[in-house]
């Protein structure tokens, strides 16, 4: 089947899976799919420690940087810490994403519990995203069924400079987050959501949304009663979360934009070259073609999986521009197509 034709035919997709599964020996694949709670806990802990460290640094340097006698060094330290915190908070999404795959911990409910905690932090309810993301993996590149190809506020179709800048600004994302959460509270499920939500899972999503909104409301009321708490919440959570989104959007654009549609996973998904620290912060998700080819392989094994797939990814990659020139190269290439 042509890579440019979308399909939700299960037999075609099963055949596509067999094609890339044959690239990895069975014994190696079994080893690669093995979860490791210690590695998951270490990655998650270090990520959260980084967020806390930079949050504390920007908080404690705030007053010094705002005083009339503040030196440029204090100002640079404060704003540098703030940007670093925002960068780390942006990639809480990739931690959250890995938790929805339930590959961080061997104990399933640990993934769910931490998934809800991070989902609450980044305003993405855990169960709703899990169902949404499952269909994205099942129908990657399918114009009718892939939820990321429906040209919604959260997943804009990028075909000109305006849509590109709108996506990077994150404004459509926040409009979607607010309206979707309130819609679900009111038991309103859109037709495009019915593609990945059953009547039973819709009820779970509605309950989840109401629970999140209740907790947000209680937190807002506490902030109202205790202004200092409100200052902490704004300075250390809400403001960094808002500023973090453009950093995340910059990363996410490279996953599928500019790639072919259709059933060939190694052609409709882009693996992007980058620095090792950036891959670590993004939970190894720059190896994105590998992740889509084998979604049950934990994040800490994607680098090893890449060794088996890199030649095929390089040969059969259907993304223009490719990912070999890094994230900046992908963005420059996309902008050239738009202009």
From TrEMBL:
InterPro entries: FA_desaturase_dom. It comes from the Eukaryota. This is Fatty acid desaturase, putative. GO terms for cellular component: membrane. Keywords: Membrane, Transmembrane, Transmembrane helix. It holds the Pfam family FA_desaturase. One of its GO terms (biological process) is ceramide biosynthetic process. The chain crosses the membrane at residues 40-59, 71-93, 213-237. Residues 76-315 form the Fatty acid desaturase domain. GO terms for molecular function: sphingolipid delta-4 desaturase activity.
């Amino acid at each position: 089947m042509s890579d440019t034709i979308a399909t939700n035919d299960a037999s075609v997709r099963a055949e596509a899976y067999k094609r890339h599964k044959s690239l990895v020996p069975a014994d190696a694949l079994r080893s690669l799919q093995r979860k490791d709670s210690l590695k998951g806990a270490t990655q998650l802990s270090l990520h959260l420690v980084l967020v806390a460290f930079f949050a504390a640094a920007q908080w404690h340097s705030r007053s010094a940087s705002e005083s009339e006698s503040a030196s440029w060094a204090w100002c640079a330290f404060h704003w540098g810490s703030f940007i670093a915190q925002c960068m780390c908070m942006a990639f809480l999404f990739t931690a959250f994403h890995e938790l929805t795959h339930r590959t961080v911990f061997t104990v399933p409910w640990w993934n769910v519990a931490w998934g809800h905690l991070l989902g609450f932090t980044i305003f993405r309810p855990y169960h709703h995203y899990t169902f949404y993301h499952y269909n994205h993996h099942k129908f990657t590149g399918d114009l009718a069924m892939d939820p990321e190809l429906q040209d919604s506020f959260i997943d804009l179709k990028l075909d000109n400079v305006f849509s590109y800048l709108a996506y990077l600004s994150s404004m459509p994302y926040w409009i979607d987050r607010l309206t979707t959460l309130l819609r679900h509270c009111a038991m309103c499920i859109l037709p495009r959501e019915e593609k990945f939500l059953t009547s039973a899972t819709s009820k779970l999503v509605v309950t989840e949304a109401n629970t999140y909104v209740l907790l947000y409301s209680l937190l807002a009321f506490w902030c109202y009663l205790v202004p200092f708490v409100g200052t902490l919440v704004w300075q250390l959570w809400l403001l960094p979360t808002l500023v973090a989104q453009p950093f995340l959007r910059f990363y996410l654009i490279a996953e599928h934009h500019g790639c072919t549609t259709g059933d060939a996973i190694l052609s409709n998904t882009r693996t992007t070259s980058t620095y090792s620290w950036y891959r670590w912060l993004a939970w190894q998700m720059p190896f994105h073609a590998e992740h889509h080819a084998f979604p049950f392989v934990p994040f800490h094994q994607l680098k090893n999986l890449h060794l088996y797939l890199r030649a095929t990814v390089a040969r059969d990659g259907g993304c223009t521009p490719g990912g070999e020139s890094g994230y900046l190269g992908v963005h420059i290439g996309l902008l050239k197509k738009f202009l």
